Amino acid sequence: MVQLFPNCNEHPTNPTSNIYLKPENLQPSGSFKSRGIGNLLSKAILSHGPNKPIHFYCSSGGNAGLACATAAISLRRPATIVVPMSTSALMVGKLKTLGANVVQKGCHWNEADTYLREELLAHDKNGVYVPPFDHEDIWEGNGSLIDEVEKQMVDKGGYDGIVCSVGGGGLFAGVMAGLERNGRLQSGQNGPHGVKVLAMETEGADSLAYSLRSKKLSRLDAITSIATSLGATQVARKAFEWAQIPEVTSCVFSDAEAAMAAVNFADDERIIVEAGCGVSIAPAYNDTLHTILFPHLSDSEFENINIVIVVCGGSNVTLDILEGYKQKYGLDERVVKKFHARKLRLEGRKSLPAAS
User: Is the dihedral of CA 204, 209, 213, 215 positive or negative?
Assistant: First the structure.
């Protein structure tokens, strides 16, 4: 089985509420995807029979492919990862280092996936398709992080909110299933005091928000965001269904805010994550958790709120990439105006002359 790391550390960025991190970047593949994809692979082996040959196929040059390769190697089973030609040399190198068979085909994911299905999987009777996010076993595995949060937050007074990134919706669907299983939604044992969920996306990769605006499951024409790990033109139907319940708030930030959150996070916590993960950390930096998730609470009431941010991780990032973000987005107006807004206000108050 893929080892899980149940760590949930306090995050000091915003002193006006209690913010905790669920560091999924510590998973074996570097992201939360080890949970869901590891669960899918383990179940597939059990259903096929542990002594029967099995070969896993995944069409992802991103974190899903890494999770598939990592889990397959751990389970001593072969894996073939088909990636489009646009996949970075960094990710191809990581996949090959793991020992996966890597095939580059097509200009984009759809072409790579078609090649995998029609040319490889169709001719392998022992082949098992591993989707990046749209499968019940993946949601079940991802939802295990909520089971851990339940235990970890008991001595901290529980938790009132969860923040997670949304790409194809595998993490989000898992979080929602976990909350439902633990009676944390409005229809559960907590009644109207269900846990609030903030579903974060970047502009240009906001397929969930687009579907919600359209009031039907819809597909983006293209992914234009730098947060390519969130690059699903259409979310899973289950994710779209979950997003329509009262506890969920969909929010879209700019690439600049996502990128600079990743930069600041590296400086503050010495942890590097992709921009697709940075977008979930950004609300802690730009001081919007209160206004977005709990607008009805006063400042004093908000101080008692516990919020868990899922640091989903991601391996397609380097210090050079973060430095590039800093150079490109460091002076972006939305970043300059919003980031550390509370700190600036407090400093402004301190500089005011004392009342006579």
Answer: positive
